[in-house]
Design brief:
This protein has eight helices and eleven strands. With about 250 residues, it is α/β, with parallel strands linked by helices. It has one domain: Acetylglutamate kinase-like (Carbamate kinase), CATH 3.40.1160.10. It has a nine-stranded mixed β-sheet with strand order 4-3-5-2-1-6-10-11-9, sandwiched between helices. Strands 7-8 form a two-stranded antiparallel ribbon. Helix 5 (about 145-155) runs parallel beside helix 7.
Length: about 250
């Protein structure tokens, strides 16, 4: 890991967002106001000196599993989902650069007229120069989710943590919007996340984070300023690590 940055908390983080996070109150697609709000949140942590990379899902445009469920061949459906993540990445890049945050999109599927191809050493150099890097097209392979892509890129970038932005303020024993009595974890182990199927990220992503000793912090992306607080090590979030809360 690249270590902590004193008072600013984590030195290098990967922010994982679902594609649905970009929809705002819309039923599908990209809500420009929502993307701009998230970009402002990202700007806050870059101003604090945190090297930041992002992975954004594509479920607001196309979800591979849903396509496969409707009869489409799974590989083709997954590639369509990867292309959706590129669209989301370009939208986020535009929003960030409009507010003065230098940003690069790197795609696991080469498309040089649109963005850079993923090159690990180049991505690290961008981060070192203070640029936000958005990794698009997942791992570049079907049958892998963007959660797995996020854990993979966080490992390759030597990130100190994965920040998982959701609609709730942490990990619960059940969906708190459906089960009012659900208990919130302040800290939970990778093992419990897998054994209790807590739906933090998919099993492959959790296993990869565990293997590479990358903590996952689950927080409410809708809470203004929450991202900066979590990146500083002070915010309200559930920490997923090797040990359960004592």
């Amino acid at each position: 890991m690249s270590g902590e940055a004193g008072q600013s908390g984590y030195k290098r983080v990967l922010l994982k967002l679902s594609g649905e996070a970009l929809m705002g109150t819309d039923e599908y697609g990209i809500n420009a106001g929502t993307v701009s709000r998230i970009a402002e949140e990202v700007k806050l942590i870059t101003q604090a000196g945190v090297e930041t990379c992002l992975v954004i899902g594509g479920g607001n445009i196309f979800r591979g599993l849903a396509g496969a469920a409707s009869g489409m061949e799974r590989g083709s459906a997954d590639y369509m989902g990867m292309l959706a993540t590129v669209m989301n990445a370009l939208a986020m890049q535009n929003a960030l650069e409009q507010i003065g945050v230098p940003t690069r999109v790197q795609s696991a599927i080469p498309m040089p007229t649109v963005c850079e191809s993923y090159i690990r050493r180049r991505a690290i150099r961008h981060l070192e120069k203070g640029r936000v890097v958005i990794f698009a097209a997942g791992t570049g392979n079907p049958y892998f989710t963007t959660d797995t892509g996020a854990a993979l890129r966080a490992s390759e970038m030597n990130c100190d943590a994965i920040l998982k932005g959701t609609q709730v303020d942490g990990v619960y024993t059940a969906d708190p919007k459906k089960v009012p009595t659900a208990r919130r974890y302040n800290q939970v182990s990778y093992k419990r996340v897998l054994s209790d199927d807590l739906q933090v990220m998919d099993a492959t992503a959790i296993a990869l984070a565990r293997e590479n000793d990358i903590p996952i912090l689950v927080f409410d992306l809708g809470d203004s300023g929450a991202l900066a607080e979590v990146a500083s090590g002070r915010g309200r979030a559930t920490l997923v690590t090797h040990n359960d809360e004592q």
